[in-house]
Each structure stands twice: as structure tokens, then as C-alpha cells.
Design a protein that fits this description.
heterodimer, A: 359 residues, alpha+beta, Heat Shock Protein 90, 5-stranded antiparallel β-sheet, 5-stranded mixed β-sheet, 9 helices, 12 strands, elongated, B: alpha/beta, 11 helices, 7 strands, 39% helix
């Protein structure tokens, strides 16, 4: 063995295509506590752990044979006493006098390996926790939904039952129960949708959709709320645009944007729904003259549960702040994009960009 | 439909012959692992290569965990490739886990297979004492999975384009080389689990196709005793033990491997 190779501060070894060690330097012998004689002419698997033997046969050797070079491969070697020694290797394959030889530098990496193990362990732990959280959210939402459906159903029955026989106070109370129940049902739906979107189990069924149908439906549904609050809700002319989207989900998004616009606009204000074509996309804008979003909060509005972080200034607005994060994810699933332009006190414009249907 | 399957599994067809021979790669690699032996068969056979979904240049977007988390998804790939080729009586050569995938496919649709060539087969890698010693216990497989996970950074590097060194085999294109072993780590992890944790011992006696078993004398992944076990369980099988080390004789000792396959198939061709 070349004296320089015996002096370098890392292990060095050579093996042929059969895996037989043909050269090892002093450092290699020291790391694994073998003598040179005990290693030369033996198989490289002598110093590999069982898992590393499989990796050598299924990856390392084929890669060397095909690519002639491998870098930063993590392996576990085994000392004569059976102690596992994590190493990092760089190797290259050369053909010398028609004899292929695989040359390999070996670096011990015990401490780094421990850190990596810890990171992997923490990652798995975090993934498990996240799974549990999503399951819990989904379960909670179902548990909330069932009794709520009963309450809402019973309120309807009761309303029909007392039709014409009740005083205005009783009607008012029933109306309050119904509205509160609906709000709660919407929150439960938000949680369920969010949990599904986060866990990746949410599917959209994109198809050719007449945008007018979606806009008209959403517009009509938001109209009552706007009227009740004294807000002028208007829209641009009827559109012929066809988009490639999930009709129900797109309606859910537009409804959410219109409801938010009404919610954050003071009586006497205005909410306008417009559409335009831009390249291969349709753009739907919901513009309001509401309170707007402060610059420092604009990045947070698409983050879930952002309303929980409010310092009380927005406490009059109910909800978990899930509507916009859900809308953003839904639009992304439809291969579009949801963005916002806003200035505090000047109102906001939310824009949905969605692919046009191909002819 | 055929074109879709060809694209999905990156099927390549070469050779002058009529008799179809289908080579199926093993765990960790793709169809390029066969390049040291396929030239020897191109004169007499129609040589068909493919990549399993998730490997090599296959269409990774077709990968679905529920299909490929057991070997049966890969069995389906093989049957669909043969269907798309519109061939019956295919000679199927599988390396390592592909030997078992081919065996399971032949049990399902025996009319599609003329011969199975198993290189380094193991029906069960786990020990099941006292009757059976596959060579590994569960902790070894866990260690392998962890090694794969920790090599993720290294693996990612294989996606990057780089100039290949092909001095001794200049005929290879750079594009082909680059894909070798460039497997998505998640897919590789699932394939490793499907490969090393399955037990197909009970399927071996159901094989109704003549089988050649090519076994290296010293193979730590599929040891000689496992090769002998496979031989003992398949009615019409021939065991050829190569004086070679390792689990990939078609890469480390291509001449020996070619000779073993040639001898076996020549006998059959002479007979017929």
C-alpha cells in the first residue's frame, strides 16, 4: 500500500466487481479493528451490517457499475467486535489492465449520524402528531354536525307546526335559533373541509362549467345578506365564459368571497362582482369598499386560524379564519390562483384566476 | 391502450428474432441493468425491456400506493405489458424480486409464459425458523429502510443532469444512464417493503411453467440454500449455480449468466 494512502486521515479501500477487497489502508484497519491480512481477499460484506449488505448489492454495486461513481452514500459498517460504525463513502470505478477496480474513501460520521437520526425521529413524530390532529378535527366536525342537523330539522318542523299560531317574539326566537344553528353548521363544514384538504384526501371534479351559472347562483345567495346590511351588491354584465373547474367548489369559493366582502363592509358600502379573460384564464374579481386589510396582516389572511391571533380588533367577526385558506387551496386544486389587493380603509379586491375550458 | 402501457412502463423492443424474451429488473434499478447481457440475445430473440412504474423512465405519475404497496401491482404491470405486446409464450427473465413477480404473473395467466428465468430468487427474505431461513430478520429490513431514508440526499443528486463517463461503452447515451437508480425515495421505500416483507413460499408449487433458476454460489441476499429451496418447490425447474459472488451476476459476471441462459434455452429450442 502506498505510504501516502496510509497517512491520509480517512479510510481507503479497493474492491473488485466480485466484492473482494484488494486494498485497504491503515486507517480502514483501525476503524474496523481488523488487520490488513484479515481483510484482503475477503468480501467487502465482512465489514458491512446486514442492512448495508442489501444496500450494497441492490444499489451501491449496480450504481458503481453503471455510473462509475457514487458520492455521499451513507452506509453502516461493522467492526470486528460487531459494533455498528456509520460512514459516508465516495467511490469510483476504474478499469486498470482490463481489471475493474472500485476505489472508495470512507469517512466516519458517528455524531452527524446521531443528529440525522434525531431529525428523522422528530420528523416522524411530527407527522404522526399531524395525522392525529387531522383525525381529531375530522371526528369533531362529524360529531358537531349530527346534533346540529337534528336541531335545524326540529326548528323547521316547529316553524311549520306553529305557522300562524305564534307571536312575533316566538318567531324571532326561532329565527335566532335557526341562524345560530346555520352559523355553527358552516363552522363545522369549514373544519371538515380544512381537515380533508390538509390531509390530501380532498378531490375536485373538474369539468367544463358555464361561469355565468356559478356567478348568478352565488350572487343571488349573497344578495339577501347584502340587502339586510344595507350594502349595494352589483355585478358586471352576463358572461359567456366557460371555465374548467369543479362547479360546486368554485361556487363555494365565490360565495365565501362575497360573504366576506359583505361582512367586512360597513352599511352604505358597495360590493362589486366582475369577470374578465386573461390569456388562458378567466379572472373573477370581488371588490368591496370595506375596512381593507392592514399591510402587515395581508400575508396572514390565507393562513388557517389567523383570526384566533387577532388582538381583539376583529372580535366582532365570527369564525376560525378558515374560509380564505380553504378557498385558496380549492382554487389551487382547480389549477388556478386566489390573490388579494387591499389597502386599510380603502377596501379589498379578491381575484380568482381559473383556467378557461379548452374548445 | 398498448401505447399507453408502453409509455407507462417505458417498454423498449430490440432484436432480430421472433421469440419474445422479457427482462424485468429488480429492486433498486431499472431496465439498464440488463445492458451487459441483452446484446447476446438480440440475434435470436425479440428482446423486450421495461421499467416498473416508479422506476427508470416510467411514468411516475401512474404510481398509486394502493396498487403498488404489494407485489400484485407489479404483477399486474407485467401482465399488462405482455397483453400490450400481443404475445403469448413469452420467456420471462426476472432478477431478484422480479423472479417472484414473474412467478405470480405466470400462476395468474400461465398461457402467457413459455419459460421463467429466475436470477437470484427468494420467495421470502425473512427467517421463519426452524423450517426456513430467508437470511434476514425484521430488524435488518428496518435497517435497510433507514439506510435508504438517510441516503435521500444522495439519491436526490441522481435526478440532476450530469455528464456520464462512458469511455468503455461510448454507445450508451447520457440520457439513458442518468435515469439509472434515480428512483423517487418514497416509491423506493414502498417497493423495498413490498419486496422484503412478502412471503410467497406457498406460491412456488403453483408454478406450471418450466423454470431456470440462476443462483450465485455466494449471494448474501438470496443465499444458495434459498435457491435450492426454490428448486425443490417448483416441479419443472433447473438449478444452475454460478461460480460467482453477489446478487447481480448479470452485471458482475455477464458471460456466465449469458451462458447459463443460452444453454437452457438452446436445449428447449433443440427439443422443439
Amino acid at each position: 500500500m502506498n505510504s501516502v494512502l496510509n497517512k491520509i486521515p480517512c479510510g481507503y479501500l479497493e474492491f473488485n466487481d466480485e466484492g473482494i477487497l484488494t486494498q485497504v489502508n491503515n486507517r480502514t484497519c483501525n476503524i474496523f479493528n481488523y488487520t490488513e491480512k484479515q481483510l484482503i481477499n475477503n468480501h467487502i460484506e465482512t465489514i458491512l451490517t446486514p442492512g448495508a449488505k442489501i444496500f450494497y448489492q441492490t444499489h451501491l454495486f449496480p450504481m458503481l457499475k453503471m455510473k462509475k461513481q457514487v458520492n455521499e452514500i451513507y452506509l453502516t459498517f461493522q467492526s470486528k467486535e460487531g459494533e455498528n460504525i456509520p460512514v459516508l463513502i465516495n467511490a469510483e470505478r476504474i478499469v486498470d489492465n482490463e481489471e475493474p477496480i472500485n476505489r472508495c474513501i470512507v469517512l466516519q460520521m458517528e455524531r452527524r449520524s446521531e443528529y440525522e437520526d434525531r431529525i428523522l425521529y422528530d420528523k416522524k413524530k411530527a407527522e404522526k402528531k399531524s395525522d392525529k390532529k387531522e383525525k381529531l378535527l375530522s371526528m369533531m366536525s362529524h360529531e358537531l354536525r349530527s346534533p346540529l342537523n337534528v336541531i335545524l330539522g326540529m326548528v323547521d318542523l316547529l316553524s311549520n307546526e306553529i305557522n300562524g299560531n305564534a307571536g312575533s317574539e316566538e318567531r324571532k326566537y326561532l329565527g335566532l335559533i335557526k341562524n345560530a344553528g346555520k352559523d355553527l353548521a358552516r363552522l363545522a363544514d369549514d373544519i371538515l373541509n380544512f381537515a380533508k384538504l390538509e390531509s390530501g384526501y380532498f378531490e375536485v371534479n373538474n369539468e367544463v362549467v358555464l361561469l355565468e351559472e356559478v356567478l348568478m347562483n352565488s350572487f343571488m345567495m349573497a344578495m339577501h345578506e347584502a340587502e339586510d346590511k344595507g350594502i349595494e351588491l352589483t355585478r358586471s354584465e352576463k358572461t359567456e365564459i366557460k371555465v374548467f373547474a369543479d362547479k360546486d367548489r368554485l361556487k363555494q369559493v365565490i360565495m365565501n368571497l362575497l360573504t366576506n366582502a359583505v361582512k367586512y363592509t360597513e352599511p352604505g358600502g358597495e360590493v362589486i362582482l366582475t369577470t374578465e379573460k386573461e390569456g388562458q384564464y378567466a379572472k373573477i374579481h370581488v371588490k368591496d369598499t370595506g375596512i381593507g386589510i392592514p399591510a402587515e396582516k395581508i400575508d396572514q389572511i390565507f393562513q388557517p386560524f389567523n383570526q384566533m391571533d387577532n388582538d381583539g380588533s376583529g372580535s366582532s367577526k365570527s369564525g376560525f379564519g378558515l374560509g380564505l385558506p380553504i378557498s385558496k387551496k380549492l382554487v389551487a386544486l382547480m389549477e388556478g390562483n386566489l390573490t388579494v389587493n387591499s389597502e386599510e380603509g380603502e377596501g379589498s379586491i379578491f381575484s380568482v384566476k381559473i383556467p378557461l375550458a379548452k374548445n | 391502450m398498448s401505447q399507453k402501457i408502453f409509455e407507462r412502463n417505458n417498454v423498449t423492443i430490440t432484436g432480430e428474432g421472433e421469440i419474445p424474451i422479457l427482462f424485468a429488473h429488480g429492486f433498486g434499478c431499472d431496465q439498464h441493468m440488463w445492458r451487459f447481457i441483452t446484446p447476446a440475445f438480440k440475434e435470436k430473440f425479440k428482446v423486450i425491456l421495461f421499467d416498473y412504474v416508479g422506476f427508470g423512465n416510467s411514468d411516475t405519475s401512474s404510481y398509486k400506493t394502493e396498487r403498488y404497496n404489494t407485489l400484485h401491482g407489479y404483477v399486474q404491470d407485467v401482465l399488462e405489458v405482455i397483453d400490450a405486446l400481443e404475445h403469448n409464450d413469452v420467456i420471462f427473465a426476472g432478477h431478484s424480486v422480479s423472479s417472484i413477480i414473474g412467478a405470480l404473473a405466470s400462476i395468474k395467466e400461465p398461457q402467457k409464459f413459455k419459460h421463467l428465468i429466475m436470477i437470484g430468487p427468494s420467495p421470502c427474505y425473512l427467517n421463519d425458523p426452524p423450517e426456513y431461513y430467508g437470511g434476514y430478520d425484521r430488524s435488518t429490513i428496518e435497517e435497510l429502510l433507514q439506510l435508504m431514508q438517510k441516503n435521500y440526499i444522495g439519491w436526490a443528486e441522481f435526478f440532476a443532469p450530469e455528464v456520464m463517463k462512458n469511455e468503455d461503452k461510448p454507445q450508451l447515451t447520457e440520457e439513458l444512464e442518468e435515469s439509472f437508480c434515480s428512483t423517487d425515495p418514497v416509491i423506493a421505500h414502498e417497493f423495498a417493503k413490498a419486496t422484503f416483507l412478502s412471503d410467497n413460499r406457498e406460491d412456488l408449487p403453483k408454478i406450471d411453467v418450466p423454470v431456470l433458476i440462476i443462483q450465485c454460489e455466494n449471494d448474501s441476499i438470496a443465499p444458495l440454500r434459498v435457491g435450492k429451496y426454490v428448486h425443490s418447490q417448483i416441479k419443472d425447474s433447473t438449478l444452475e449455480v454460478l461460480p460467482a459472488n453477489g446478487h447481480c451476476p448479470h452485471m458482475s459476471d455477464p458471460e456466465l449468466t449469458i451462458e447459463a441462459i443460452d444453454n437452457y434455452l438452446n436445449q428447449d429450442l433443440t427439443r422443439s
